[in-house]
Design goal:
Helix content is about 70%, strand content about 5%. With about 290 residues, it is mostly helical.
């Protein structure tokens, strides 16, 4: 049987491009804790001319793959705050299901515009606060604010880039729960994993260092993506011939991303996060305005 017939209308070059898109999303998603959707969706819609809703459905598969592959590595490094992740996930998963149902009824240009707006917000916030990093050197095992309602969420880790053990206390938990619900809504609505909201909120508002915020977000986004992906599958937007190669690429990219992240300084992570988000936001804004197809 002709191999080209096995993969339907796509040729091997097309499959290779989809794998490369997955690799890009896997590297960036695992390093930034955003699931890779912020790169996968623009590359699929702008580069491969895939309809917006099909790109979102494919991105959710990529997000789930990123989470599953990167969470194990970050748990081993003790970067992920599992207690905080499970608590925030209670509102995130609910928001993801609601967002998925809303997305199937929205116009593609509106989705692209919302996507661009969220990226601008996240990128600007990270750049504006690029030199502010919560946490302090670890001197003992006592939480920073012992006896507070969120003292049980305090955590510590060894920063491989600086060589300094760091501890931190979680603050503004109600804000974090609300923002996580909104992040889940965006995940289901836009297929981005919710990390573009969760990482800045955890880092800037909840006092979680960027490295721990990335790892905690990576732990959460898989559950969020799976919760909303079933809705897209039921509505017929999930194309296995597109999602399959992207999934394979993501698994490859995540391996590189999780190995690189611990060696990069927190400031550089923030700057890279902000720069990529702002560039992608411009591209998606052009699509929302009808300037690009």
């Amino acid at each position: 049987m002709d191999e080209r017939a096995i993969i339907g209308p796509m040729d091997w070059i097309h499959v290779g491009l989809l794998v490369l898109i997955g690799i890009s999303g896997g590297v960036f998603g695992s390093m930034m804790g955003v699931g890779g959707g912020v790169l996968v969706i623009p590359l699929l819609t702008l580069g491969m001319k895939l309809p917006m809703k099909e790109a979102i459905a494919c991105s959710l598969i990529a997000v789930a793959a990123t989470a599953c592959a990167s969470a194990a590595s970050y748990l081993k490094l003790r970067y992920a705050n599992v207690r905080l992740a499970l608590l925030l996930e209670t509102t995130t998963a609910a928001g993801a299901i609601v967002g998925a149902f809303l997305a199937v009824a929205f116009h593609a240009r509106l989705l692209a515009g919302l996507f661009a707006g969220i990226l601008v917000y996240a990128g600007y916030s990270m750049f504006r606060n690029r030199k502010q990093e919560p946490g302090q050197p670890l001197s003992d095992g006592v939480p920073l604010h012992e006896g507070s309602p969120v003292s049980s969420l305090s955590a510590s880790y060894h920063d491989a880039a600086s060589g300094v053990p760091t501890r931190y206390d979680v603050r503004s938990l109600p804000l974090g729960l609300g923002a996580s619900g909104f992040a889940g809504l965006l995940s289901g609505l836009l297929g981005i994993g919710g990390g573009v909201v969760q990482v800045p909120v955890m880092n800037l508002a909840m006092g979680v260092p960027i490295r721990a915020a990335v790892a905690t977000s990576s732990f959460m986004i898989g559950i969020t993506a799976i919760a909303s992906s079933f809705v897209y599958y039921q509505k017929g937007y999930m194309d296995p011939l597109t999602a399959g190669p992207v999934f394979v690429g993501v698994l490859i990219g995540v391996q590189a991303g999780t190995r690189a992240m611990p060696r990069i300084r927190a400031l550089y992570l923030k700057l890279f996060f902000a720069a990529v988000l702002l560039v992608v936001a411009v591209l998606m804004l052009l699509k929302a305005m009808g300037i690009t197809r």
